[in-house]
Design brief:
Blueprint (H helix, E strand, L loop, with lengths): L7 H4 L1 H16 L7 H7 L12 H14 L4 H18 L2 H17 L3 H18 L2 H17 L3 H17 L3 H17 L3 H17 L3 H17 L3 H15 L5 H17 L3 H18 L2 H17 L3 H18 L2 H17 L3 H18 L2 H17 L3 H18 L2 H85 L4 H42 L4 H33 L7 E4 H18 L3 E4 L6 E4 L1 H17 L6 E8 L4 E8 L6 H4 L22 H11 L4 E6 L3 E9 L4
Parallel strand pairs: 2-4
Antiparallel strand pairs: 1-3, 4-5, 5-7, 6-7
Length: about 750
Amino acid sequence: MSALNNNLFTKLKFSFTLTFLLFYLTGFAAFSNGSIDSIKGLLPHSLNNNTNADTATINRLNKLAEDYFHTNPDSTYYYAKKSIALAKKINYSAGLARGLLQTGHVSYFNGKTAEARQDFDEATTIFKNLRDYKGLSACYISYGRMYTLLANYNLALNYLNLATKANKHINNEEGLADTYKNIGIVYYAMGQLPNALDFYYKALFIAVKNHSTILSGEIYNDIGVVLQNMGVYPNALEYYKKALNIIQNENDLQGVSTMNENIGEVLLAQTSYDNAIVYLKKGLAITKKQNDIDGLSSVYADLGLCYAHKDQMKLAISYLDTALGLAEKYKFVYNQAYASIGLATAYNMQKDYKNAYKYAMEGQALALKLRNLSVRASAALQLNQTLAGLGQYHQAYVLLNQYIDLKNQLKDNESIQKLTSYNYELNFVTKQRQLEQQQRVHELLFQQKIHNQRLLNTIFLIIILAMIATSVVYYRQKQKQKRINAMLQDRNKEVLQQKASIDEQAHKLNELNILKDRLISVLAHDLRAPLSTLRGLFSLLQDNTISHRELVEMIPNVLKNLEYTSDFLDTLLFWMNSQMENFESSVKSFSIKEIVAYEIEHYQEQAALKGIKLIDHVPHYLMATADPNSIRIVIRNLITNAIKFSKKNDTVEIYASPDNEQNILIRIKDTGIGIPPKQLAKLFKSKIDSKTGTNNESGTGMGLMFCKDLVEKCNGHIWVTTEQNVGTEFSFTVPASLA
């Protein structure tokens, strides 16, 4: 029966439910940016009668109830009831009204109109007392939807007109668009398609203007329903697909269900019954899960018609009987008409005109009450076939003419002209919005360009300041070195003047000379890497080799290296002062783990660049008694040497363990290239010719001699074991803390 179109309210259910959430969120939802999970996380662990009630908790419960409606209406009802109980407990009127609005929505969704009306009445009274026009509008829209479902169109329009006034009073454009859309639904149900299109497109223009994507999707669905009833199936599918593209990523089960049913009904009208059944059963699964009575009644009727056309009459009658029973029980007038006409269709196909007559007459009476053109046309066609089968040809002829007249009204030129006109206007509005968006994008890009330039200037300033800071530190070190040289000259003069103490003075001068050389070697060894990094960065900037984004990504590492270098210089200066004054004064108890972890963190990136694993095996509980800065310098030197002489896929491991009751043994072990015997014999004894590393890294040859001196000044001992192409292990001891 291709003339029999789908159930109005199931086809528009997507519109009913999505817009309720959309309007409610714009009206007064307390936490509009929160997801269900985030709101649940803010609720008390136990929600019962003993829960301490506060307005924030009630608002969260109401928001949770709203968000659950599209996936689990039972949860909506549960959380709304909780919010109502808590709101009554603390006399929180606004929270109580919002909770009642939610329970009323679920009640009429499940066919309990009396309970819904009671909740809406109470919520409306509260919103009026609070002068909450958004809340009032939400109530009026809910009334309108409910009375549309009950085919009481005059009452539905009265409430929707009140919603229009409320939204205009507070200049709420999004709420106004939702109201216009629902007025369009009423006019569609009354069979006044031109008026329905007027209000649908009024709503759509506002939605497009305000970038209301979800509301636009609902209206596309509603226009698709009009096109389907006019028999313009390709255009109807086009609008349904627009709506589906919008809702498919919104986790809106009701919208997905409605789209599946709509597509299934278009396929039914196009006699593609098997494909229609596939889509209808997808919709049926969701409606069952959500206990959507209206949707169940409609889908059962659609499936019944599909199976009737497939000549599976027993199954068809079963589905149609079930659909009619649900519609009668919950007083869904449209569904009753739809199911009755469907049963008349099935019996007419069997030529069982006696049973067909009963249902055709019921369908005709309900269609006249509904006034919907599509339903009236379907009812007239089936009653025509029934009367013709019973031999009442004159009455059948009258109904045939009535059917033809109704079909012509459905395809009225005025509706088609309005569709064409509104589509042209919509395209113009859409293009205008796109131009505005492009203009905004250009403005944002220009602002971003200015921001990037400022950021680049800031980065240059930071780099310059970092260079100045490094230069200042270097200058101070140079000045201190000059003072040391002056001291050496003074000592030489004293040696010439005081021959009696020449040996002692010569020894001191020798120590100061060694100190000077070691300081210079350490500076050359540890300042080379950060300065090279800065030089390389400036070269890349000068050549425009790297992009701004790459530069921004490199800045944190450069700053980290500079911070590490500054820390190293402070440590070195501290050590140098202790050398010149009193080394014993810098001895203290410290954690070996902290020092090792700090050095590993700094060299982790350097090791990763060479493909080397840097592993810390040092336990947390080991405490040593020595100069921590001296031990830090030793560990740093040994780690850098291990990385320097290791290759890709090698490992560098640091161990620490008690050596005896007095000492702790620290080992730095690598699986690198090892040390040749000739060079091994010179280690720790004098300056050696430093070999280049596995990536051609250079060195001073002073590092290990410096380490030996520091370890011995800390009352420790250092040694090395190595095997070429197997690896090297440097070990040293440090006094254990007795505390």
